[in-house]
């Protein structure tokens, strides 16, 4: 076949869709035995929506979630630090951010591919030049092989064993609350509180996706202490406690937040990495999924230009590496300042965010929300 993609997540599915629209026979090989709901919520920012629009998927993604009316960043000590109107983002970038269940996004993507292009129960075991071998005994030969197999990528571990993950010092709970936001509350936002943060976004009129990061050593399972976790947020706005109480503790998802030290290369011969396998980032900028989607578009463009060749993969890497590295570094830094504990440093951070010139903010947004593909 033309292209075999290991991993049926956001990046792998989008890559297959983009490649097939370019006339390339692309197949997805996913370890799971069936498509099941996973995760909680996710944001599709304007750069991702622009790519989806080019693939004629933007309307379907928007219909599966809610477009942002207003976003805000606040802190426990200083109140609102910054706001961003969805209308402004739509005028400037063509699309508002959309929040939706992660499972809903997966469904939009896998339903956009023909059934014969999706192969479940195929956990990747080994990659060779031009061949992928799976734990179920199957093997496929392909002119290009794409490792879109996530943070713990088998492809990356085999081809680039020197690449290393780094722990951010933060773990996070996520959940979906059956609740409504109070009148006048931004439809999406985040509140900083020193050791703790809390973010929220409506994914439909009756459901709020929330995430609750806090400082913790890696590998500590906090799921049995939901009450104590809720106590960490006692000083946060009242609706934060209401969301936590509206979410059954047994449904809370905990994830330690890692990223990937930006590697020198993602390509070896006719094999390339994509998405988290290549440039996993902490979720602080809401760009993890979006960067995988940009990868998918860039890969398809380069294959159209240069064919099913090593040159196409190298050109894909060149197109994407700078922005992906910028996102990874920026997200790591924001996580550091978001979890400052010294009250004076927190106050200085809050004032810096409140008084930041508009042109600085917009320059950052322009780089983030305009795809580099």
> Strand count, sense and closure of the main sheet?
7 strands, mixed
At the first level of CATH, what is the class of the largest domain? Alpha Beta
> What is the count of distinct domains?
2
Distance between the termini: 25 Å
Topology readout:
Layout: E1 3-6, H1 10-21, E2 26-29, E3 41-44, H2 46-54, H3 58-63, E4 66-67, E5 70-75, E6 79-85, H4 86-93, E7 98-101, H5 102-110, E8 118-119, E9 124-128, E10 131-134, E11 139-141, E12 144-147, H6 154-159, E13 165-178, E14 188-193, E15 196-204, E16 207-215, H7 226-231, H8 238-245, E17 253-260, E18 267-268, E19 271-273, H9 276-279, H10 288-306, H11 310-338, H12 343-355, H13 358-369
Parallel strand pairs: 1-2, 1-12, 2-8, 5-14, 12-19
Antiparallel strand pairs: 3-7, 4-7, 5-6, 9-10, 10-11, 13-16, 13-17, 14-15, 15-16, 18-19
Helix pairs in contact: 1-5, 1-10, 2-10, 10-11
Notes on the protein architecture:
By secondary structure, this protein is an alpha/beta fold. It folds into 2 domains: 3-58 and 100-165 and 261-337, FAD/NAD(P)-binding domain; 167-258, D-Amino Acid Oxidase, Chain A, domain 2 (2-Layer Sandwich), CATH 3.30.9.30. The chain has 13 helices and 19 strands. The strands form 4 sheets. A 7-stranded mixed beta sheet has the order 6-5-14-15-16-13-17. It has a 6-stranded mixed beta sheet with strand order 8-2-1-12-19-18. Strands 3-7-4 form a 3-stranded antiparallel beta sheet. A hairpin with a 3-residue loop joins β5 (70-75) and β6. It is globular, with a radius of gyration of 20 Å.
């Amino acid at each position: 076949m033309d292209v075999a993609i290991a991993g049926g997540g956001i990046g792998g599915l989008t890559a297959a869709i983009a490649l097939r629209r370019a006339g390339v026979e692309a197949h997805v090989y996913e370890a799971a035995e069936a498509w099941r709901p996973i995760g909680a919520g996710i944001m599709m920012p304007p750069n991702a929506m622009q790519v989806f629009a080019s693939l004629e998927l933007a309307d379907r993604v928007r219909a599966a979630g809610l477009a942002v009316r207003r976003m805000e960043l606040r802190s426990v000590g200083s109140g609102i630090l910054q706001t961003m109107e969805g209308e402004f983002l739509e005028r400037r970038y063509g699309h508002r951010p959309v929040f939706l269940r992660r499972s809903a996004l997966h469904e939009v993507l896998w339903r956009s591919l023909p059934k014969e292009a999706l192969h479940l129960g195929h956990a990747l075991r080994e990659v060779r030049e031009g061949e992928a071998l799976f734990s179920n005994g199957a093997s496929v030969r392909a002119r290009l092989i794409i490792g879109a197999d996530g943070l713990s990528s088998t492809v990356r571990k085999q081809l680039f064993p020197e690449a290393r993950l780094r722990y951010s010092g933060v773990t996070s709970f996520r959940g979906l609350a059956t609740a409504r936001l109070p009148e006048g509350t931004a439809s999406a936002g985040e509140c900083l509180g020193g050791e703790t943060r809390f973010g929220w976004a409506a994914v439909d009129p009756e459901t709020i996706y929330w995430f609750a990061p806090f400082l913790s050593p890696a590998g500590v399972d906090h799921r049995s202490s939901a009450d104590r976790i809720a106590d960490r947020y006692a000083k946060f706005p009242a609706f934060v406690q209401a969301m936590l109480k509206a979410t059954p503790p047994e449904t809370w998802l905990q994830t330690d937040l890692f990223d990937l030290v930006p590697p020198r290369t993602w390509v070896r011969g006719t094999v390339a990495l994509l998405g988290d396998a290549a440039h996993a980032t902490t979720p602080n900028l809401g760009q993890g999924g979006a960067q995988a989607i940009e990868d998918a578009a860039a890969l398809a463009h380069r294959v159209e230009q240069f064919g099913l060749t090593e040159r196409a993969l190298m050109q894909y890497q060149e197109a994407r590496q700078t922005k992906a590295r910028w996102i990874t570094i920026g997200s790591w830094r924001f996580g550091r300042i978001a979890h400052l504990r010294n009250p004076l440093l927190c106050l200085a951070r809050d004032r810096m965010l409140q008084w930041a010139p508009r042109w600085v903010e917009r320059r950052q947004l322009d780089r983030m929300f305009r795809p580099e593909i």
